[in-house]
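pinning this so it doesn't scroll away 📌
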Amino acid sequence: MGLLKHLKSAASLFVETPSEPPKPELKSDDVPSLDDIDLALPPEAQLRRGAAANSGVSRAASATTLGEKLPDSELDFAELYAHFGIVRAAFSAEQLAQIIANLPDELDADGRRETVRAVLGALEAQGVTPEKVVADATRKIAAINAAIGQIEARANENVENLEARIADLQQQLDAARREIIETRTRQSRLKHECEDKLGQMTTTREFFGPTVAAAGERLARDEAKNPN
C-alpha cells in the first residue's frame, strides 16, 4: 500500500488545474481517421497506416509540421502535437509513461495494470480515466507517425537535391578535367611545332659557318636598335 500511496501522490502532481475553462476534448467520432491523414502526406507517410483506428489529428495541420529543412535540434513534441491540433490533456500519455517506467520490476503485468488503474482512480475527480489517456496516446502515435513520414519525405527530397547538385558539379569537374587534357595536348603540339621551327632556324643560322653566323647576329642586333 505504501507504493500505491506514493504513486497516487506523485500522479496528483502531474494534474494541472487550468486557469481558464478547458477546451473541448477531442473525441474519436469528431476527428479524421489515419487514412484521412495519409491523404495529406507524401507517399512515404502513407506506408505508416494502422497506428490507430481513429487518429484525433487535424488533417489541415498535417502538411505544416516541418519547414523546408529538417530541424538541426531535437524535435519539440509539444509544438508537433499543437501543429496536429492535439488538445493538451489534463493527464498526458507521457505522464503515465513516466509512472509506468517507475513501477517495481517485481510486479507482473496484471499487478502493474492494477497499480496504474488505482493511481488513475485517485485522479478520476479531475476527469482522468484510462480511456482518455489511451486516446491521448493514440492521437500522439498518429501524429508522430505522420511526422516520421514527413521527415522521411523531406530527407529524401533534400538528398535528391544534393545528389543532383553533386551530379552537376561532377559534370563541371569532368568538363574541367577534359579541358586540362585538351590544354596540355595543345601545349604539347604547339611546343613541338615551335621546336621544329627552332631547329630549322638554328640550322639556317649555322649553315654558312661561325663567321657568317656571328655577322648575321650583329646585323640583327643593329637592325633592332635602328629599325629605320
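📌 and the second one:
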Amino acid sequence: MSILLSCNASSKKPGSIRVVSVINHTLFPILDSIILHESNCDYYTPSLIFSISLDKRNNYVVIGSIGSKVYKSENLIGCFEYGKHLFLVKGKRLDDTLFEKSKKYKALSFAKSETHYNKNEDIFIIDSDGVQDDSFSYWYYKYENNQFTYYSSSSCCN
C-alpha cells in the first residue's frame, strides 16, 4: 500500500512540508475507521484534512479532522496521504516508532492568518481567509510500547 502521494520535490522549498511514511502499520486500521466515521458526517468533503498530534511527554496521539485549509504552524513536522486524504503530523519532534522521514516534500497552500492587538478594547483580533467551523471529530489514543490504546473521542458529527 503506497501512502506517499503528490510529492513534487526532493529538497525543501518555501511553502512545502516534509513527507513522512507510516512505519507502524497498526495505525492504518485506526485511520480507516476514522475516515469511515467522518465520511458519514454532514461536514465531510473529499478534501477533508486530518491532523495527527504527537504528545511524547504524555504518550498521547490525537487524530482529528480539521477542515479543508492548512494553517502554518511551528509544530507542523510532516505530512502523508492516506485514503485520499492529507494527514498533517504535528508535535515537537517526529516519533521514529511511528513515522519515517523521506527526502521528499509536498507543496502546500497555506491559508493566511494575521493577529492584531486592539489596545482600546484589550483584545486580539484574528484576520483569516475563511476561519473554519471547528466542530469536527477527535480521537485520543495512548501510545506506549509501539501500541495504540483507545482513550476517548469527541465528535460533532450529525
